[in-house]
Amino acid sequence: MSKLFKKILLMIGLSLLVKGLGFGREILLAYFYGTSIIVDVFITALNIPSVLFALFGTAITTSFIPLYMDIKGAEGDTIKFTNNILNIFLIVSGFITAFGIMFSHIIVKIFASGFSGEAFVLCNHFVKLTMVIIMMTIIQYIYNGYLQANNHFAQQSLMNIPYNILLILTIICSYILNNFYVLAIGTILANISQLIYLRYLISKTPFTHYKFIDLKDPYLKKMAFLVTPVFLSTMINQLNIVIDRTLASRLQEGSIAALNYSNKINSIILEVIILSITTVFYPTLAHLYTSNEREKSSQFISTYLNTAFLAVIPLSLFINFFSDDIITICFKRGAFGNNDVIFTSRALKIISLGLIGFALRDILNKLYYSMQDTVTPVKNGIVSIMFNILLNLILITKYQYLGLAFATSVASNISVILLLVQLYKKKNGIDFKQMTVNILKIIFSSLIVYFLAVFGRNNLVINNIFFRFSFWGIVMTFIYIFLLILFKESTCYSLIKKYHILN
Fold first, then answer.
1. What letter does residue 252 receive in the DSSP assignment?
2. Would you say residue 73 has pLDDT above 50?
3. Distance from chain centroid for Cα 407
4. In which band, very low, low, confident or very high, does the pLDDT at 292 lie, cut at 50, 70 and 90?
5. pLDDT, tens digit, 9 for 90 and up, residues 204-229
6. What does each C-alpha distance from 52 to 88, 139, 386 come to in angstroms?
7. Which long-range contacts link 493-499 to residues 24+ away (Cβ below 8 Å)?
8. Closest to 385 in 3D by CA, of 169, 249, 234
9. How far apart are CA 385 and CA 408, in angstroms?
10. What pLDDT band is residue 502 in, cutting at 50, 70 and 90?
11. N vs C: which end of the chain shows fewer Cβ within 10 Å?
């Protein structure tokens, strides 16, 4: 287990480096364009191919790794299986790309029904140019799945370094040249850089790509059985995004940009910490289930979930507490002024309430996929999107973009509760009593830290925003760790005893 935690720390370190570059990209976008219609169009246009490839990409990786482990355990031909999957999905993605280019105007109307005039034309042209990203991303997903199944994890973060550098240069060039279409070309080049890097890594493994398709492969049939519910589940999650963006496109200018910048803050937690945890844990969890090691897998799941709760619950409150400061530090410069800070930080404060749901939903879905149960996440996703749509319709008229943010947060938390209830009903040996005790200790510790920080900040005025943010961040972290030790939270306490930190 200690090796896994070391890998997680490595992944977190690499992810922080990459997210630093990613934030540089968002800061530049905010600096040059603020919350203008250009940003709304850029974000919407990028979201369209990302939704389409996410449907296939997530389905591929979540079903590919458990089946790969099955074949590897049976000493089958894993390279042949990987080539079969890669070639089939390349053909499918080719058809999707062609369809997207030909009918881009219809797709834009679906994704951004509020766009008209110049905004619609720009978005339509941008989508036509960037649809080729789908084919490249499908290859990336399969390469990543293959590398992760063979215990290579760093590429998940490292491939985003050239990606972000190229996008940063692209944003600067587009502003200097006053040409929006430079952003589209730069986005394509950035995705090509990821593919080149992954191809270089793959060349150092036994894998070789060759032309091979076997539609009668029993593992392909099994994958099709597993992929269909995963595909539906991912489609439901993406539909949530589409609905929110479509409704936001009908609101005041900058609503999409404000929601996007707020979601970028949340994505740091999801990608730096949660993605690091799932990337490292998922192949091991899939292996334990395929090996029928039920006792080990139950213990592993408990550690898996506790680790996520330890990180996400306090960070959710931390982001809520510092929403104004975070947006100011990250984005307040150039075209992004005081009104933009207020506009965006309100959204961030609400979205932070759903961070626990966003993070745990992904982790729990992966857990179900490792059990080769892909139906439960679909059922859960349908309920979640129904709540989201209902709350959107109720709240959007009065609360505008904040109503959309609140609806998404509530729906994600409901989703996690339902997934945990279903996991409890499976009676798979997980000690839910101990897990509940741990969660209550984490929540209680986090709330104490939050209210102490509120009291402290009200009585200790620190004008310098960077010093204030750093000071209270460090204080809150130390108090949180102290309370976890005091309450003897099992995961934290076992690590401390293992490494003799208190001796």
1. S
2. yes
3. 18
4. low
5. 888 888 888 888 888 887 777 777 76
6. 16, 14, 21
7. 495/5, 498/2
8. 234
9. 9
10. very low
11. C
